[in-house]
Structures are given as structure tokens and as C-alpha cells.
Amino acid sequence: MKTSSMLRSLTNFLVKLLASSAVAPLPATTSFGHQLTSQLNTIQSQTDSQNANGLLHALVDAATTTQQITLNSLSDFTTTTCQPSDRKIIDDYLDFNVKMLDTCNQLTEKIDTIRNYEESLKVVSRLLESGQPHPTTLARAKHLLDSCHNATETKRPFKRFFSQKLAQSSSSDSKLAEILGGSKAVTSLVCEILGTALSFKSKRGLRPLLQQTRSVSSSTYWSCSLQQLQKQIREHQKSGSSMMLTELHQTVKAAHYLRNQIKGRNTTSDDLEELKRRCEELEKEIKPFEEKVKEMYKHLISVRMALLGILSSQF
């Protein structure tokens, strides 16, 4: 066989080999993908240096920012023609959106529960501040502390409305699928984490959600950054770090200690001062989260209205 013939045969063999290989295409880059990836990478770079509260604030801010990026990206679809398959993608997202709005309401209820818990502890402090309270007053304080303790022991299931169709909606080549898939993935993750942080018991992990959102198609530009962030959060939990809001954890701990001290009749002024200080810190910290949840709710509404507008004009 001549040299030229051998080269042609080798070339043909290599072409057939490459054609038969399942080579995944590189993720397409879009403005939405760049912006979402950028904010996810920023959180990753700060995760190790932040405490639990700092990470929580960054994540909730990221969820709200993602809604804003989503809203801005949807403006392109008011002047361009959507694909026929986009109708189902929008309908699926609208269903998800309603569930996320409901989740925001649940988060607000959790915050209200924490506020009521905090107010009860303040009443306990006032009842005991005389130093030698009347037995009736002491009994009332003990009853309130028992009620607070029972509140921390009661299981309040946090409904998990998180999308089970992330992989399906993200596997489409549609630009709209990438945008709404990113919005779903980030919002789901953040709401799950925040729901855990605002619970009196936060030992349960986030693994079910993280395994679920890990299935998001790797064909999206932002998916690798999201998966890496999930991995960092899992490592954070494996290290023994609680996702419970720090001030809530410390307040529950102080209330539990005071309750035991009253039982043993060993209550001191230092115990009361510790409880007061923890309540003040909790009150100061919970307000920003309340505002952030309301802000996320407003942005979810805005995205919903934009999609309804697209449906009315395009389909």
C-alpha cells in the first residue's frame, strides 16, 4: 500500500472513531449563564472564610439576585419569537413559582415563631429580674420556659416543594430553559438551606436536595459552579457545623440552661443577663432575614408577571 493510501485510511479511521465517540459539547455561554456563574463563584470563594450566618446572607442575596437576572433576561423574549416547546417550560416554571411563593410564606411563619419564642423569653427575664421572685411568679416563669422548650422539641415539617424536573427543563437547548432552570436550581437550594437555618433543630442534612439538584444537566454553563457550591455546603455540614442560625442556637442554649437552673434553684443574675443578651442578638439578626425573604418574594412575583406577559403575547 502506498504511503498516501495509508494516510487516507488512517484519516478515515480516525474520523469514524471520533464520530462514534460520545463527546459532550461544551456548554453554550449566554449573558444569563455568565452572570449566574459569576455570583455562584463569588459565594464559593467566600464560603471557607465566612461563618454560618455570613454564608446564609450570601445565599439569600444570591437567590434574590438570580430572580433579578432572570427578570432582565426575560425582557429579550418580549420582542423575539419563542419556540413551541417553551410553552411547557413556562407552564412548569409557573407551577414551581407558586410553590416557591408558598415556601416564602412558610419561611415568614418560621420567623414569626422565632419572634414569639423570643418574646416569651423576654417575659421570663422580667419575671425573674427581682432576684427573689414570689413562688407564683417563679412557677409562671418555669411554665413559660417549659413551653419554650416544648416548642423547640416539636417537629414542624418544612414542606419541600423543590422542583423534581430540574434536569428535564435544563436539558433543553432552549435559552429560556437555561434561564428558568437556573432560577429553579438556585431558589430551591437557598430556600431549603434557609428553612433549615430557621428551625430549632437543624441537625438534618441537605443531602436529599443536593442529590436532586445535582442531576441538573451539565450542558448549562452555570451547572458546574452550582454543583461545586453544593459540594462545599456538604463539606461544611460534614465538618460538624450546624446550618442553624447562630443567634437562634445560642438563645435556645441559654434558655435550656436557665430552665435547668430554675429546677435546681440555682438561678443567678448572670444567667438572666446571658438570656437577655442572646434575645437581643437574635432580634437584631432575624430582622434582616425577614426583609430578605420579603424581597425574594417580590422578585418571584415580578418573574411570574413577566412570564404571564410572554404567554399572553407569544402563545
TrEMBL record:
Q: Where are the transmembrane segments?
A: none
Does Signal count among this protein's keywords? yes
Pfam (any one)? BPS1
Q: Which GO terms describe its biological process?
A: root development; shoot system development
Where is coiled-coil annotated?
265-299
Keywords of this entry: Coiled coil, Signal
Residue span of the signal peptide, if any? 1-22
Q: Does the keyword Coiled coil apply?
A: yes
What highest taxon heads this organism's lineage?
Eukaryota
Q: Which PANTHER family match?
A: BPS1-LIKE PROTEIN
Protein's name according to its UniProt entry: Uncharacterized protein
Origin organism of this chain? Acer saccharum (Sugar maple)
